[in-house]
Amino acid sequence: MTSFVRGAALAVGVLAGAVGCAGAAGFPVDEERGGMPTFAPVLARVLPSVVNINTLSPVQVRSPAGLEQRLVPSSASGIVVDAERGYILTNHHVVAGASWMGVALADGRMFEAKVVGSDAATDIGVLKIVADNLKQIPRGRSADVRVGDIVVAVGNPFGLGQTATMGMVSALARRVEVEGVEDYIQTDAALNPGNSGGALIDVTGALIGISAAIIGPRANVGIGFAVPIDLARLVMDQLIKYGSMQRPAIGMDVVDVTPDVAAAVGTTGAAVHGVRPASAAAGADLRVGDVIHSFNGVAVRDASDLVNRFGTTRVGDRVRLGIARGTTRLEVHLDLNEPRAVALAPVQP
User: Are 45 and 96 in the same domain?
Assistant: First the structure.
């Protein structure tokens, strides 16, 4: 039986080289070494943006005198995504329960970090440090990522030290053995326990995901997962603004649209399977059988995609849904005024 494993650390490998242009099939090359295919120039640019995070967390341990509380150290990684304001992106499970956090930069400087906010459902955490001359990572767009793209994960697996691994995007929009807001990028770039919170980058060095989890017996088997940067930044912006994610109650169940239904209504998306009375969905007159094909003007891929879109909304938001009701096209608005009674949260291993 496979297991869903959250990692613990991620740091960047120190590789140097001259900045080169893309070679065949977009693979980066080092022009100063005769066009040698290499990721060294890319990683040299990424290195200053990736930090080590050290934490102390209280745990109960049994001793001859009985149960006592001790502070247990652990390490992880984060990524500087806003150099001016000192914001660092990492995983929720890296910062959850920690009583102290320190950040070590690639240039050797160390700072105490403050938790701005974290969200269990997306496994995203945001830290802040006060430091000069920070270097932020270039931001990519996970919406542009395709299966088969070459990627590099950088980290500190098993505490062995600075390590970079290469692979490709194996699948997109993965949901794993957890409940929550998920849209994972799956990769075969080697991820192991100790790789949480760091960067999954494309061949240009742009950040496309935050390494978060693996499937396997606590070791790499070629299936690792990263939170897409587009989702991570949406959550990060709300954590910075509000300190938490207060998700609203929607009041409906959705399923994937079958090919027969898609052919009948002329669109794909998410089909409404149930509507609860006196809910936001009921107030918008959503009905069983409606096909939701757009969310705030953006096409909806399937039911999981719609769940993820709602997962980044907050109480008080208003969203616009494009609806296919038979052959009729409608637009409805949901006023999301009621908080969700039970927050979504991943099942921790």
Answer: yes
Residues 121/80, Cβ–Cβ less than 8 Å: no
With pLDDT > 70 as the criterion, what percentage of the chain qualifies? Answer: 86
Question: Are residues 213 and 256 part of one domain?
Answer: no
Among 165, 163, 265, CA closest to 222: 165
Which residues participate in catalysis according to the annotation? Answer: 93, 123, 196
Q: Over the stretch 221-236, which tens digit does the pLDDT of each residue have?
A: 788 999 999 999 999 9
Query: Token digits for 124?
Result: 């995203």
Instruction: Please give the full DSSP string across 37-90, using - where no structure is assigned.
Output: E-SHHHHHHHGGGEEEEEEEEEEEEEETTEEEEEEEEEEEEEEEEETTTTEEEE
Q: What would the two tokens of residue 290 be?
A: 């409606």
Count of domains for the chain: 3
At residue 223, what are phi and psi to the nearest 5 degrees? Answer: -130, 100
Whether the full predicted model's pTM is greater than 0.85, yes or no, is no
Query: For 278-300, how does the pLDDT look when each residue is reduced to its tens digit (9 = 90+)?
Result: 999 999 999 999 999 999 999 99
